[in-house]
Amino acid sequence: MVIAFKNLFVTLILAIGICSASADEEKWQDPAWQDAIWAQRGCKADERGRWFRNAKFGAFIHFGVYSELGGFWHGRQYDPAEQIIGLGQRHEVIPLDEYRAEAAGNFNPTNFNAREWVSLIKAAGQKYVIVTTKHHDGFCMFHTATTGFNVVDATPFKRDVIRELAEECQRQGIVFCPYYSIGDWTAAKVEAPGFKTYGDYMRAQLKELLGNYGEIKMLWFDNYWYVNNQWQNDEAHAKELYAYVRSLSPNTLVNDRCGRGASSLDGDYATPENQLKGSLQKRCFEVVMTDTGDDNWGWVRGARNYRSPAELIRNLIDCTSKGGNFVLNVGPTASGEFPPEHKAILQVMGKWLATNGAAIYGTDPAPECETGPQPGLRCYATKTGNNIYLELVHWPDGGQPALITIHRHDFVSAGVLDSSLPAVHVQPTVTNDLTILSIPEPAKVDPYATVIRLTFNGAK
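RE: above sequence
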């Protein structure tokens, strides 16, 4: 069933908007311009990507009418929770009229508070937030003229969640980034009349998101495998979609899922999912990870398998040391709150970052640091200016000192970032252009990672 507009005026405005795009916006259809803007993609060194390179720690929020169900349908649990309409099969399985009645029809997250969400994110040290504006179920969490299947028109809640979050992020200085699923299980049944193709429908929604919600520094695409041949995941379509976004918002970063996905070189940066990188990366990336030890991104009622703060702090350090960002997901509850387990995680991570953030934010990897094969030693390294930061997650077994080799000879001093910990007594040995540091384990260490700042003469 196609959802018709109750107000003819809205339909007319939509038609006018689709037909009245400026000539500047239409350049995305020019193959030569597509090639030119595609050749400029990336965020490794340009000003457009500076905020992303410096941010290091982000938040992901999967919130939609699927949250109302909490991963359960008629008494049975399904994974992943946010794809429950397709029951993991990546196509509509639950009939849309039932989904609309039982999920959208009951969705009323009265405890949703954008200020509280963003405050929790900010206190945790997360610098940007990615929010699901439309997931694979096709439901829009923003008020759109393209379909009545949206949070304002189809739920008792009747509030534009995306607008409230975007405005609160702006107030609190958090970068707001919309998530948008390209593949859409319900589009053919819910899109407004007048769209000739799914591409037209998708572009109309993207134009709303990029034009009505303040500055958009990053757009996070998903579902690059597509549904019912709505789109294609080849380079030509990736170029077209990338060019369209950049024509509307020239400074917006676009992830690799605009095309062939996490293993491709499409878009501006890579998005490995629930998997850490094994080595220093040449391309900008962000590891996106669930806060539970599974592949559920939406809230699961009764979940107890939350990851530990120790694991997540280590993952953040790992990503930073390899030139990337770490993004932690939360699935808010049906009532519109962060689960208490997630709040507890954020509190621990925020406290650690408040003390040790200098070793994370705005840093670069420090490949000049090497650790030998010492049993038990787990040490990462980052740098800014004339400082190198050692993040010791685990000290060597048997009480042995940590031995760190640095390809520099101009060592000045060493100190622990956390002033509540005892001082470290570093014994340096300088040979040619190498500095070998012997660092005995202090009497008290940070339970997550002890950070030692090494100062050298001049940056490198």
